[in-house]
Amino acid sequence: MSGEYIIEATALSKEFKGFTAVNSVNLKVKRGSVHALIGPNGAGKTTCFNLLTKFLEPSAGSIFFNGRDITHMAPANVARLGMVRSFQISAVFPMMSVLDNVRVALQRPVGQSFHFWSPESTLDQFNHQAMSLLEDVGLTDCAAENAGDLSYGRKRALEIATTLALDPSMLLLDEPTSGMGREDIGLVAALIKRVAATRTILMVEHNLGFVADLADRITVLARGEVLAEGTYAEVSNNKEVMAAYIGTSHD
Questions:
Q1: How far from each other are the two terminal CA atoms of the chain, in whole angstroms?
Q2: Contact, 157 vs 125, CB < 8 A?
Q3: Phi-psi region of 40 (alpha: psi -120 to 50; beta: other; left: phi over 0)
Q4: 3-class secondary structure for 160-223?
Q5: Is the C or the N end of the chain the one with fewer CB within 10 Å?
């Protein structure tokens, strides 16, 4: 495996009772880059993403992360190696403050359990680091608010902050703009740019236009196979890619 790439998947396939959702996909993500995995609905993006993050076992193929074979590794063990994912649905503790959501997440890297019943003072040691993470995602102004009161876009930003608390070397984002309005999409795009300054990012998206100014490289899936790969300019002018996107939004 090449040190240039943080993750490499070879001939990755997944079958569900005779249906091939992902068929012999080869994917390499350069260290320190933003890589987008896109495609129209039903292209196999989410299945491929779940294979890479080990939430699904592949029917065939191999996956290496930082040169280590993780093909049959459990998701929690992969996360400990530094590859952490988000989900389409934002997952925060709505009745806890924004700051407390991050402080609780910060317990894990130092080997502590999530002791919700412990005195609040036990989390004070994480205050400075938690506020720093909130600054990274643009949420310092609402640190004292309940997480459940945030807008959808800000909840996604908080989720990314709690994910960053695990100090991943690679962050995987599953449709980060799903269900968002235009204003929230702009917020998340700016957030991804900030986070990408220090980490590798792989994101699954259906919207080709959203990744135009974000992704260094784009892999396009269609019917479970790689249809094209390259820069935004290259894939957006690919006739096969445009044909695959007929009837879907990519502007």
A1: 36
A2: no
A3: beta
A4: HHHHHCCCCCEEEEECCCCCCCHHHHHHHHHHHHHHCCCCEEEEEECCCCCCCCCCCEEEEEEC
A5: C
* Separation CA 69–CA 62 (nearest Å): 7
CATH 3.40.50.300 fits domain 5-244: yes
With 90 as the cut, is the pLDDT of residue 61 above it?
A: yes
Give the strand pairing for 200-205 and 83-85. unpaired
Q: What are the structural domain ranges in the chain?
A: 5-244
Give the C-alpha separation, 109 to 164, whole Å: 10
Q: Which residue has the tokens 């590798």?
A: 200
Each residue's pLDDT tens digit, 120-137:
556 678 889 999 999 888
C-alpha closest to that of 171 among 46, 102, 83, 109 = 83
Farthest-apart Cα atoms in the chain, separation: 60
Neighbouring-strand partners of residue 203: 36, 173
